[in-house]
Amino acid sequence: MSSVHVNRIIDRHGAERASLIPVLQDIQDDYNWISEPHLRQVADRLGLPLSEVYGVASFYRALSLEPRGKTLIRVCKGTACHVRGAQLIQEELERQLGIQAGGTTEDMAYTLEVVNCVGACGMAPVVIVGDKYFPGVKPHRAKKLVQTERDEE
Ligand code: FES
C-alpha cells in the first residue's frame, strides 16, 4: 500500500529522476529511516529500477535502511577517542539504554552507533547526541547525557 505522505513528498519535488536524493532525504527526516515499501513507492513513482533507488539509499550514510530512533547517539571510537576510554563510554551507554551498539530502543527514542573519527580528536573522547558534540566525556557523564536528553523531552 502506498503512503500518502510519501506521495506528497514526491509531488513536492516532482516525480522525476533528479528528485531521487531530495525525496529520500525528506523520507529519512520524517520517518528516521527508509523502509522497503517506501523504496518501492519511490521507484514506482519516479520510474526508476528498485535496484537504483536501493543503491542510492544505501550509499549515503545520512540515509538509513534500518529503523532508527528519534535521537541518534554516536560514540566515536577512532584512535584518539579509543585510547581515552571510548569503550567504557560505549558500555555505559549500552547499559543505560538497554541496547547494544547498532541497536534502537524499543520505544524508537534512541539509536546507539559507534563511529570512526568524527574530526574532533582534540576533544576526545567525543559523544554526539543528535547534532550536539560532547567533548571529554567520562563514563559517568555518559549516563548523564542520556538522563539530560530524556529530561529535555
Ligand atoms: S578519534 Fe574521536 S574525534 Fe578523532
Describe the structure.
- The protein is α+β, with helices and mostly antiparallel strands.
- It folds into 2 domains: 4-59, no CATH class; 71-152, Glutaredoxin (3-Layer(aba) Sandwich), CATH 3.40.30.
- Helix content is 48%, strand content 12%.
- It is built from 7 helices and 4 strands.
- The chain has helices at 4-13, 20-31, 36-46, 50-59, 79-83, 86-97, 139-152, and strands spanning 71-76, 110-115, 127-129, 132-134.
- Strands 2-1-3-4 form a 4-stranded mixed beta sheet, covered by helices on one side.
- β3 (127-129) and β4 (132-134) form a beta hairpin.
- α2 packs antiparallel against α3 and α6 packs across α7 (139-152).
- The radius of gyration is 18 Å and the shape is elongated.
- The mean pLDDT is 93.
- The structure holds FE2/S2 (inorganic) cluster.
- FE2/S2 (inorganic) cluster binds at residues 76, 78-81, 117-118, 120-121, 124, 126.
> How are the strands ordered across the major sheet?
2-1-3-4
Order of helices and strands: HHHHEHHEEEH
CATH topology of the largest domain: Glutaredoxin
Bound small molecules, which ones? FE2/S2 (inorganic) cluster
How can the largest sheet be summarized? 4 strands, mixed
- The low-confidence runs, each spanning 5 or more residues with pLDDT under 50, are none
Radius of gyration: 18 Å
Query: What's the quaternary structure here?
Result: single chain
Strand content: 5-15%
Number of helices: 7
CATH architecture classification of the largest domain: 3-Layer(aba) Sandwich
CATH homologous superfamily placement of the largest domain: Glutaredoxin
Number of strands: 4
**Helix content range of the residues, please?**
40-55%
State the name of the first-level CATH class of the largest domain: Alpha Beta
End-to-end Cα distance, whole Å, is 33 Å
Please identify the structural class as seen in this structure: alpha+beta
**What is the average of the pLDDT values?**
93
> What is the domain total for the residues?
2
Shape: elongated
